Amino acid sequence: MKTLAYGFPKLGERREFKSLLENFWKNKIDESEFVEGMNALRDWMVSNYKEHVDVIPSNELSYYDFVLDTAVMIGAIPSRFGEYEGLKTYFEMARGKQALEMTKYFNTNYHYLVPELEGTNFKLLKNYPLEEYRYFKEKGIETVPKILSPFTFLKLSKAIRKVEGQGLPFFELSKLENQQDFEAYFNAVFGVYEEVLKKLKEEGVKEILVEDPALCLELEDYEWDIVEEMYSCMSKYVDINVLTYYDSVSNYQRYISLPVKALGFDLVSNKENLENIRKFGFPKEKELIAGVINGRQVWRACLDEKIRLVEELSRYAKDVIIANSCPLFHLPVSVEFENEMEQELKERLAFAKEKLFELKVIKLAVEGDQQAKMEVERVKNILSSKFGEVQEVKERVKKLREEDFTRSVPYSERIKLQQEILKLPLLPTTTIGSFPQTEEVRKKRTEYRSGKISSAEYEEFIKRQIEHVIKVQEEIGLDVLVHGEFERTDMVEFFAEKLGGVATTKHGWVLSYGSRVYRPPIIYGDVYRPEPMTLKEITYAQSLTQKPVKGMLTGPVTILNWSYYREDIPKEEIAYQIALALLDEVRDLENAGIKIIQIDEPAFREGAPLKRRDWDDYFRWAVRAFRLCSNAKPQTQIHTHMCYSEFNEVIHYIHQMDFDVISIEASRSKGEIISAFENFKDWDRQIGIGVYDIHSPAIPDKQSIRLVLERAMKVLPVELLWVNPDCGLKTRRWEEVVPSLKNMVEVAEELRKELVSVQ
User: Fold this and answer.
1) What DSSP designation does 488 have?
2) Label partner for 105 (CA 20 to 30 A): which of 112, 260, 329, 751?
């Protein structure tokens, strides 16, 4: 019996990856120093594998994003980036002025860069799998190269299409949903993959790992035909070990018939894979990669249960490889660094390093090792006691009635009441919420948390930041202001620190995209609000201006989906607990005179199961959780924000949320998201179009902003449109933010004048 792990977090124990990347971008280190630092991280990742598992993957450390790496590997570089010039082009695609669109990787909070396919002329540009295999081979370490399947790559990609409209040509991105198109692109892409495999074989590589999570989507028969032919061709070069994750495979019978060496199953996300193995059996000639250790949750595994499962699987397959259920990069590196955490909670946790140890223990225990068996018993005793229950919270959820999920006045009447109070102009301008978190802001926060300055000194500092940002917004001419969120580290972590039943970490960093990291909270018990969370800062900001200042909250679905959550009660119940805590905050803000409250739900879409057949149940409670916390007075204007999500697919669920205004990303997607409204005729809510990409340091020109708005005005009544950046400004610098917002406001003012003159 062997063990396999993959997707170990590349971040490093002290966030070395982030430091290397950002120092390189700032020209503090040159390319050779950058590569040397990244190689040290490669060595570190593999050293962790070597200590615990038998099968060691390579080609796991991307300089930005592994999907982008795949696009570069096959030469899928849009013409606007010119000839490939190494890291210069690579990072221009990732974060330049015309960067690739960014969206969530399946139903996770990892953001990948969407490959743009401009024609079908692909060529092998950079053989990443071969380069890293050689790197470790020269060090005497035998690894198994890991690649993203060409099928999954295409399911994640979009084609660039030129659209002509009223003398205004523009480019749209669209998924490859047409069989003829998909097959044409697949044939072109697969030709490059064959070249990669041929070179790996020539190098002496005997087997590879192929990540193919798209096989868990609901696929057409022709797609399975492509997959079968693909693996038949790939297996001519090397042995193939397929990894699927985040859900059960969509067609078990066709999956187990694939001509490969080993088949991987996520045996954690749901029970369907296991039920199919029990019902239909498993081919004796293939190895079964059993994903029994949860790669997305931080809880210790109940090891005795996992051992029984592995032993059962051994009756169906002659060879079982014990593995994690999905990539480990969704987890922090190690729980050992959490020295300030409550011991009773800490001993229940397992981060990435601890997951590797769990794999080793399971294997040893199955083989009869006595020490491993003692560890299994020790963990069983830890997990047997209850933890974090609050009876009053449970009772409050039980007493919810249908009217708790419904606003008392319909939108068509609410909007009139709100406009009487707010008196906003056509195309009102605002931002998403956060403003630059400068080095000074971060330094003061660190000093406060370490006790170097008092609570009073820190609060006074935050007040000065709020005063500054209100003044800046008024000078720029924004219509609806925000308080800047200087007191917040992260939009979820900030609330987690103030909610009961939720813990935060000191070192539990996880990569979201590029060098952007966050620390997911841990929901370990029943959730409640001990006291107001945002009232002080927002009401102070409102006292400084006559313009409306938005109250800024993170929604219950996002707090849930961006946290590690308890697994002993349904997610729906946790969502309602969080929603009730937020509802208490909404009521306090209303009573303090705040007229607009924004409840952000960027993770609304990402929590959906991979299979659409399961969507209705998820979105039923996700919508209700939002409606529960936003059940405000009709005069209170409720905003929400969503970014980098496949908006088109879920627009009818989003409409059910019953907000008054939504802001969305529309810049990186080249305005494609706006096309969702062409097909959804019942849209009647106000919508803020994200007119420029805040993830790029480039300052948007007025023409590019105007193009996005003009595209939107062709589809939606101008009376429904707001103007805003596509996300928060926290990661940008003031010298980028001010001119960008000035350009945005000037375009809105120019369009208003033009519209008035036409009327």
Assistant:
1) -
2) 260
Give the architecture (CATH level 2) of 413-758. Answer: Alpha-Beta Barrel (3.20)
Distance from CA of residue 400 to its chain's centroid?
31
For residue 310, give the nearest of 326, 284, 292 by alpha carbon. Answer: 292
Least confident of 129-133, 571-575, 642-646: 642-646
pLDDT of amino acid 103: 87
The helix/strand/coil state of 732 is: coil
User: Quick one: tokens of 183?
Assistant: 């097959």
Residue 716: CB atoms within 10 A of its CB come to: 17
Beta strands 686-690 and 721-724, pairing class: parallel
Rounded Cα distance, 508 and 567, in Å: 19
Distance CA 738, CA 746 (A): 12
Residue 410, token pair as written in the block? 């319909």
Q: Tell me, letter by letter, the H, E, C secondary structure of 283-317.
A: CCCCEEEEEEECCCCCECCCHHHHHHHHHHHCCCC
158-163, strands of its sheet edge to edge: 116-117, 158-163, 170-175
Phi, psi of 53 (to 5 degrees): -120, 165
Left (φ > 0), alpha (ψ -120 to 50) or beta: where does 495 sit?
A: alpha
Strands (E), 32-74: 57-58
Does the predicted TM-score (pTM) go above 0.90?
Answer: yes
Other beta carbons within 10 Å of 374: 12
Predicted confidence (pLDDT) at residue 645 exceeds the cutoff of 60: no
Given a contact cutoff of 8 angstroms between Cβ atoms, the answer to whether 492 and 499 are in contact is no
Average pLDDT, the chain: 94
357: Cβ–Cβ under 8 A, 6 or more apart, which residues?
A: 52, 350
pLDDT at 172: 77
Please write the tens of the pLDDT for every residue from 600-614.
998 898 899 999 999
Position 170 pLDDT exceeds 90:
no
Q: Are strands 522-528 and 287-293 parallel, antiparallel or unpaired?
A: unpaired
Domain residue extents for the chain = 413-758
Distance CA 467, CA 164 (A): 46
695 is catalytic: yes
Beta strands in 185-226 (DSSP E): 207-211
- Sign (positive or negative) of CA dihedral 217, 220, 223, 228: positive
**Does the structure show a pLDDT above 80 at 759?**
no
User: Among candidates 686, 670, 674, which has minimal Cα distance to 719?
Assistant: 686
Burial 679-701 (b: 16+ CB within 10 A, else e): eeeebebbbbbbbbbbbbbbbbe
User: Residue 599: helix, strand or coil by DSSP?
Assistant: strand
